[in-house]
């Protein structure tokens, strides 16, 4: 869904990527920097009720995370480990966001149902990622789904940030939307793998 905006974002970040390419900084350093900052921001600010500030910190590090791939292409040192590291650490950042907001909802927010929804978003996001990784490990392409990681995270952060500004009901709406999108995406990937592994898959009529 958001792939259409990536070329524009790439052009916007191009000056920063070009400047980084002249330094000893590596794409993996940026990847680690991004997830450490995002995790620290989410777990330090969300559980204490600083929802808007936490959203701004997380958004900054989400944008910085876009630099690693572009830098790897310029420096020509993108590799299997870099892709593995990026995908693995993304899961940590996502878990910090939804885990942090779940802690706040269960304590200061006093909404245990919505806290459970946030935890569902955390677990479902991991399952969506695992389904693709396991399928690709079996040699099956599995990049289908109504909402990818970036879209689910963006919806969650928008809801959290607007809630921090006092907008009513938006946090609940955002988390429920992410929960539904995650469940549907997981089901789509399971269906895609089931279809690809049927005995008659790929056979003509």
Describe the structure.
With 205 residues, the protein is mainly alpha-helical. It has a single domain (2-196), classed as CDP-alcohol phosphotransferase transmembrane (TM) domain (Four Helix Bundle (Hemerythrin (Met), subunit A), Up-down Bundle), CATH 1.20.120.1760. Helix content is 76%, strand content 0%. It contains eight helices and no strands. Helix 2 packs antiparallel against helix 4 (67-75). The protein is flat, with a radius of gyration of 18 Å. The relative contact order is 0.12.
Topology:
Elements: H1 6-21, H2 27-45, H3 51-64, H4 67-75, H5 80-106, H6 112-137, H7 149-164, H8 170-197
Helix pairs in contact: 1-4, 2-3, 2-4, 2-5, 3-7, 5-6, 5-7, 6-8, 7-8
CATH topology: Four Helix Bundle (Hemerythrin (Met), subunit A)
Question: Hey, roughly how much beta strand do the residues contain?
Answer: under 5%
The outline comes out as: flat
Radius of gyration: 18 Å
| Uncertain segments | none
Distance between the termini: 33 Å
Structure annotation, total helices: 8
Report on the biggest sheet. Answer: none
Keywords:
Four Helix Bundle (Hemerythrin (Met), subunit A); mainly alpha; 8 helices; 205 residues; 0% strand
């Amino acid at each position: 869904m958001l792939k259409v905006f990536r070329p524009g974002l790439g052009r916007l970040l191009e000056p920063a990527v070009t400047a980084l390419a002249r330094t000893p900084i590596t794409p993996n350093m940026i990847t680690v920097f991004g997830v450490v900052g995002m995790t620290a921001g989410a777990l330090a600010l969300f559980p204490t009720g600083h929802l808007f500030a936490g959203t701004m910190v997380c958004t900054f590090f989400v944008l910085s995370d876009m630099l690693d791939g572009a830098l790897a292409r310029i420096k020509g040192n993108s590799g299997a480990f870099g892709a593995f590291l990026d995908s693995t650490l993304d899961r940590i950042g996502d878990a910090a966001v939804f885990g942090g907001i779940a802690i706040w909802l269960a304590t200061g927010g006093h909404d245990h149902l919505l806290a459970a929804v946030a935890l569902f978003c955390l677990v479902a996001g991991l399952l969506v990622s695992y389904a693709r990784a396991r399928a690709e490990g079996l040699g099956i392409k599995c990049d289908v789904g109504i909402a990818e990681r970036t879209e689910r995270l963006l919806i969650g952060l928008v809801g959290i940030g607007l809630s921090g500004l006092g907008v009513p009901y938006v946090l609940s709406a955002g988390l429920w939307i992410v929960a539904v999108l995650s469940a549907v995406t997981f089901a789509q990937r399971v269906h895609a793998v089931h279809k690809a592994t049927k005995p008659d898959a790929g056979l003509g009529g």
